[in-house]
């Protein structure tokens, strides 16, 4: 499994520029919180070098439908829906001539103030990938944390999607996890930057760090099990059967990176790459 996912700042700028010009979507099937849900992953963008293949892959794997959302004269930012819920954005980018892989999932964490979060991140050793900027539904920025993992920050001007809207279901994001070389340092960085409360739990495979706010766990930190893997934020999608979903991913042009195994979270998950190389986790749900 190769998790070396370089991402140029210009790619993120293109992604956020696309968000800034998107037409206003139909949000009638969603409900939003009155107060910020600080620390919650409130959006996910797929940055992809092959948006047509991405539509086929995620449509076939999760049953997503897609709406073109870029403004006039802009490149094809698309919104993905699962039923009446928007689940992600698809951002097309040009492949780099040096072979650097750009395709990846980019989560956005809700923060109370984007500019303050960026300033706190820089003070704690992070780097700005894209400076804070206004988009159609709020304000966003992107950072590279001290270990090199890329993360987005967001402050919505309509409220965050509430926990009922984003409740776990097959075909939707069900968890977000940072693969980190230094879990303690990473927890300190995100506590200082986002305002997370952190706690460690023991589970099969060792200690695991949970990141939460107001008593709700919002994300996790997993100690990197392999030196050849780069720190990265991983996005988990709910499926009814992880092995069957992984096989379907291959049929749709993807690749299995870590197959279902009894030794890996009791056979409940698989790690795959989509046709352009973006890594995602397929997580079996208890229905």
Please provide a brief summary of the model.
Helix content is about 20%, strand content about 40%. The protein is α+β, with helices and mostly antiparallel strands. A hairpin with a 2-residue loop joins strand 11 (about 205-215) and strand 12 (about 215-225).
Going by CATH, the homologous superfamily of the largest domain would be 2,3-Dihydroxybiphenyl 1,2-Dioxygenase, domain 1
Radius of gyration: 18 Å
**Structural class by secondary-structure content:** alpha+beta
> How many DSSP H or I helices?
5
* Strand order, sheet with most strands: 2-3-4-1-5-8-7-6
Shape: globular
What does this structure look like?
The chain is an alpha+beta fold and 287 residues long. The protein has two domains: 148 residues, 2,3-Dihydroxybiphenyl 1,2-Dioxygenase, domain 1 (Roll); 112 residues, 2,3-Dihydroxybiphenyl 1,2-Dioxygenase, domain 1. The chain has five helices and 16 strands. The chain has an eight-stranded mixed β-sheet with strand order 2-3-4-1-5-8-7-6, sandwiched between helices. Strand 3 and strand 4 form a beta hairpin. The radius of gyration is 18 Å and the shape is globular. The protein starts with 8 loop residues before the first helix and ends with a strand.
């Amino acid at each position: 499994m190769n998790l070396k996912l370089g991402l140029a700042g210009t790619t993120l700028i293109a992604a956020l520029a696309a968000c800034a010009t998107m037409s206003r979507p139909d949000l009638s099937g969603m409900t939003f919180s009155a107060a910020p849900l600080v620390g919650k992953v409130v959006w996910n963008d797929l940055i992809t070098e092959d948006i047509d293949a991405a539509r086929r892959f995620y449509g076939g794997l999760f049953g997503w439908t897609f709406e073109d959302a870029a403004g006039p004269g802009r490149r094809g930012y698309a919104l993905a829906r699962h039923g009446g819920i928007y689940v992600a954005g698809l951002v097309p980018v040009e492949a780099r001539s040096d072979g650097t892989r750009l395709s990846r999932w980019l989560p956005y964490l809700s923060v109370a103030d984007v500019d303050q979060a960026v300033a706190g991140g820089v003070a704690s050793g992070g780097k700005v990938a894209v400076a804070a900027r206004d988009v159609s539904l709020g304000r966003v920025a992107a950072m590279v944390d001290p270990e090199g993992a890329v993360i987005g920050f967001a402050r919505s001007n309509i409220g965050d999607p509430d926990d009922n809207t984003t409740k776990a279901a097959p075909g939707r994001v069900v968890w977000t996890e940072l693969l980190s070389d230094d879990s303690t340092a990473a927890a300190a960085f995100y506590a200082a930057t986002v305002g997370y409360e952190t706690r460690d739990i023991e589970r099969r495979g060792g200690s695991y760090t949970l990141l939460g706010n107001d008593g709700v766990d919002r994300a996790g930190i997993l100690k990197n099990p392999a030196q050849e893997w780069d720190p990265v934020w991983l996005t988990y999608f709910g499926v009814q059967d992880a092995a069957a979903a992984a096989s379907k991913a291959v049929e749709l042009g993807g690749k299995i990176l870590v197959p279902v195994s009894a030794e890996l979270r009791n056979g409940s998950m698989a790690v795959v790459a989509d046709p352009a190389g973006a890594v995602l986790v397929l997580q079996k749900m208890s229905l």
